[in-house]
Design brief:
360 residues, mainly alpha, disordered N terminus
């Protein structure tokens, strides 16, 4: 997920605004949020949401396949390499977050292996790096695999001197994107080109911006800041205490605004952020929002990015480009939320005498 602060998930200019909580115009499904916050409501729907989203992704894996002309200048990166990189990034996180031996764990690993095969085990990324030594995206895609343990010696041999250049250290980009590059360097195992703390302080989130200034682009910048900071939810303890408190205070209001606006993709990302915080899971938020997003999910497992969910029973109710990202995000957020809630339950069981454990 390499969304910039001024683009939507598909790289298009952001046009839709997130409504402030309580504004008019919300869909009927979003209005159900107020009645969907019973304790345990998230755990009741999350296993099915995760399994269904992964099943849809697996059924559509060939849509992530790279075209033969992927190295040609005219090929659109946002429609080819970006979706495949997102499949690898979110699939690897789901694999690491789910229990070994479960169908979700095995399927997520299979999807990452498929993405690696599409890149010819890294050889295609080496060709990209040779053609565009000034570009960061081949390195960021590679880092998703390197963090998972899949490496290409030739790619790293060329990347090593390139990432030591002055141009690499001074690439002009939004702060949350620079934080992503720092995290990519950490994954590959090289010295980072700058201090992550200094970059974080320049982000919308790191500045603890006025919460009422939240809208679409700042929302995606915020979520990706957390993803890069925590290595996609794997290291919650990297979230500073002030940011943790700020997010726990304002995520419910932002999520409510996204539900009213039908911004399902951003809702999923906010849920992933909530599940990436250190300490106990924000159970009230997860219990309120997850049942709503579960209702938005189509029976086939896909989730639309925005708008009123369709009732069409067809196998493909939405164009692939309009639902692949939000479906991957839903699976990613569901896996993180299950981990967070179960860890909270385990901590409670250990401190409450006589309480029996149960895992849905």
């Amino acid at each position: 997920m390499t969304t910039t602060a001024t683009e939507d998930p598909q790289g298009r200019p952001a046009r839709e605004h997130v409504r402030a909580p309580g504004s008019s115009g919300g869909s009927e499904v979003s209005r159900a949020a107020g009645a969907a916050g019973a304790p345990g409501a998230a755990l009741a729907v999350l296993p099915g949401v995760l399994a269904s989203a992964l099943a849809w992704t697996d059924a559509h894996r060939t849509r992530f396949a790279l075209p033969d002309d992927v190295l040609e200048p005219h090929t659109q990166v946002n429609a080819t390499l970006k979706p495949l990189g997102e499949l690898a990034q979110l699939g690897s996180t789901i694999r690491r977050t789910t229990a070994p031996g479960t169908p979700e764990h095995e399927l997520a690993g299979d999807l990452v292996a498929y993405a690696w095969e599409q890149l010819h085990e890294g050889a295609l990324l080496l060709e990209l790096l040779r053609a565009e030594p000034f570009a960061a995206y081949p390195y960021e895609i590679y880092a998703a695999f390197a963090g998972y343990g899949l490496r290409h010696e030739g790619f790293e041999a060329l990347a090593r001197p390139l990432t030591a250049t002055r141009a690499w250290a001074h690439t002009e980009q939004h702060a949350n994107r620079q934080l992503g590059l720092v995290n990519s360097e950490r994954r590959v195992g090289v010295v980072t080109h700058t201090d992550a703390g200094g970059v974080l302080s320049r982000t919308w989130l790191g500045g603890l911006s006025e919460p009422w200034m939240f809208e679409g682009p700042s929302g995606y910048a915020l979520t990706h800041t957390v993803f890069h900071l925590t290595d996609w939810g794997r290291m919650p303890d990297r979230v500073p205490k002030k940011i943790d408190g700020y997010l726990r205070t304002w995520l419910p209001a932002w999520a409510d605004g996204c539900l009213e606006s039908g911004q399902w993709d951003l809702t999923g990302e906010l849920l992933a952020v909530a599940a990436s915080l250190p300490g106990p899971a924000p159970e009230a938020l997860l219990d309120a929002v997850w049942p709503v997003l579960a209702d938005v999910q189509h029976p086939t497992g896909c989730v639309p990015e925005t708008g009123v969910p369709v009732q069409d029973p067809a196998p493909d109710p939405y164009p692939f480009i309009d639902c692949y990202h939000s479906t991957l995000v839903t699976a990613f957020a569901a896996a993180l939320s299950l981990r967070s809630l179960r860890q909270t339950d385990a901590r409670t069981d250990e401190t409450t005498p006589g309480r029996e454990r149960h895992t849905p």
